[in-house]
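Summary of Year 1 activities. Much of the first year was spent building the evaluation harness for sequence design. The harness presents a backbone, in tokenized form, and records the residue chosen at every position. We chose the following record to illustrate the format because it has been used consistently in internal testing since the harness was completed.
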């Protein structure tokens, strides 16, 4: 049939053209006709046509993977018969491994779309049956079973909004039944196996990619899995995977995600991270970052590793040596190269801020162009709250630890960039608080230019909007307003003429706007201080102003 279609010039690669027509209605908004799919699999099952089922389920999975999630609009009752049939087949040990593998492939193809399948499959108790399918191959003779089963398990333990209680239940079941130990056993077995025409290098890498996904997700959700992996040799096998599969981008990406989770400090202990570093983990990750300099997909989890492992907090003895011998320059290079990637900029700014707190890195980072870099990133991502927050924190860290950098940052327009970023009206309260705290670090120093630039660039108007937005919030909002009041106090002290200098640089209407905004901001600030005298206890900087002085200034 397929050959005939090609001869006719139809160009339809799918021999199950009725399947494609029935379930892949890309051009319409209607839901998939899962009734047809269920009818077909049940008919082939009754006819004992295992070969036909294997091919048909492969096609169903192929078509599912082509659809975007918004095309999956089926009601639960439409999906239930097909999922019930699949779980029923998975529960039967007498079914061929090929059919089990294709059942898992089909389920995975549904689950990857973030559909309601996670909840339904958990309620149908699918995970125990999938794990039994996995364990039914104790010699690991069938890589496809391992790959597809593990792929589906990942989807059942991965966090999906709205079904967290089901994924948590699946993680707990996996821990209780020894899933992690079995997966590690499988990884070792496949790792040691020689490749051939069937078990190719690509398939070998895929096995490890799927296991890494499960390990990373379960470790992220559960401290028990995290500790278990550390205690049963997970670090050694994962580092071995990173070394062997450096030619496979997806596998490397997933392995780096596992390493991020394993190195995450939990309960204030750095033992997991130090164990990893003792075994050469930091050097291995920097080596991968060097090889994949141009690949954002790999660099994201690699840079996230530095954040999760808090590499520069209570650093490991190796850290300074490795970073001075090229690591720091590499991170700066990556941030400069991937200026269009928000995630690279976000992680990069967080890492650089952590580094800059240590005096051994400050001259090196400044020599590598850190000051120009943070200005460039802030300019490029004015509409990205997370990048702006990371940049603002880096600016505050630079000024706190190296105040001589302030004049250069101000001359590059850092004050105006703060005002522009704040003017984007971000909703995040944490962003508002952290950015205002960083802005205060810029404003509070005895540099006349910073105050005047802030007043002239419309900073008071933006600050006023933020104060009005957050003044009725709980402690974080009060704290944000408290820092905003500090900024006003620094700019308006009677002993200085910042305001007069700013007014002299503005036209008549702009002068009126500034004075009106100051009057309004004074009222909001006065109300905040009157309502929340605890500003003076939660904000150490307020100690330079007494309560009475603050009210008097305003």
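For this record, the design step produced the sequence shown next.
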């Amino acid at each position: 049939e397929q050959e005939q279609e090609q001869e006719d010039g139809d160009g339809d690669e799918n021999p199950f053209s009725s399947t494609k027509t029935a379930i892949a209605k890309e051009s319409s908004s209607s839901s998939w006709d899962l009734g047809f799919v269920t009818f077909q699999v049940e008919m082939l099952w009754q006819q004992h046509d295992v070969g036909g089922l294997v091919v048909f389920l492969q096609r169903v999975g192929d078509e599912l993977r082509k659809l975007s999630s918004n095309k999956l609009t089926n009601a639960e009752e439409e999906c239930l018969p097909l999922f019930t049939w699949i779980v029923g087949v998975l529960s039967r040990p007498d079914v061929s491994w090929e059919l089990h593998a294709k059942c898992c492939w089909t389920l995975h193809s549904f689950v990857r779309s973030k559909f309601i399948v996670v909840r339904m499959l958990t309620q149908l108790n699918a995970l125990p049956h999938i794990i039994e399918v996995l364990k039914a191959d104790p010699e690991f003779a069938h890589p496809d079973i391992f790959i597809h089963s593990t792929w589906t398990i990942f989807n059942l333990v991965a966090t999906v909004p709205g079904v967290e209680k089901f994924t948590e239940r699946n993680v707990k079941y996996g821990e209780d039944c020894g899933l992690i130990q079995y997966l590690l056993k499988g990884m070792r077995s496949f790792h040691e196996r020689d490749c051939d025409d069937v078990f190719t290098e690509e398939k070998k890498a895929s096995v490890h990619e799927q296991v890494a996904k499960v390990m990373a997700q379960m470790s992220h959700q559960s401290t028990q899995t995290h500790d278990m992996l550390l205690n049963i040799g997970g670090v050694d096998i994962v580092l071995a995977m990173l070394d062997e599969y450096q030619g496979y981008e997806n596998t490397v990406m997933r392995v780096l995600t596992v390493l991020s989770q394993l190195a995450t400090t939990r309960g204030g202990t750095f033992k997991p991270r130090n164990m990893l570093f003792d075994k050469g983990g930091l050097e291995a990750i920097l080596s991968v970052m060097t090889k994949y300099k141009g690949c954002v997909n790999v660099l994201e989890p690699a840079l996230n590793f530095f954040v999760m492992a808090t590499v520069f907090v209570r650093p490991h003895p190796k850290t300074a040596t490795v970073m001075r011998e090229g690591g720091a320059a590499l991170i700066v290079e990556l941030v400069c190269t991937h200026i269009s990637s928000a995630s690279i900029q976000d992680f990069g700014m967080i890492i650089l801020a952590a580094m800059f707190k240590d005096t051994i890195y400050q001259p090196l980072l400044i020599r590598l162009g850190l000051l120009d870099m943070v200005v460039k990133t802030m300019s490029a991502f004015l509409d990205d709250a997370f990048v702006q927050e990371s940049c603002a924190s880096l600016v505050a860290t630079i000024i706190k630890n190296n105040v001589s950098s302030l004049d250069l940052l101000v001359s590059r327009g850092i004050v105006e960039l703060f005002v522009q970023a704040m003017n984007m009206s971000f909703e995040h309260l944490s962003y508002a608080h952290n950015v205002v705290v960083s802005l205060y670090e810029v404003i509070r120093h005895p540099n006349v230019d910073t105050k005047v630039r802030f007043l002239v660039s419309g900073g008071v108007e933006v600050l006023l909007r933020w104060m009005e937005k957050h003044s009725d919030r709980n402690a974080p909002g009060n704290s944000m307003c408290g820092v905003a009041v500090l900024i006003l106090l620094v700019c308006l002290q009677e002993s200085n003429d910042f305001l007069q200098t700013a007014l002299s640089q503005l036209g008549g209407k702009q002068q009126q706007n500034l004075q009106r905004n100051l009057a309004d901001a004074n009222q909001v600030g006065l109300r905040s201080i009157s309502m929340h005298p605890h500003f003076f206890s939660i904000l150490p900087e307020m100690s330079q102003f007494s309560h009475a002085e603050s009210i008097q200034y305003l």
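The two ends are 84 Å apart (CA to CA). Quantitative recovery figures across the full test set are reported in Table 2.
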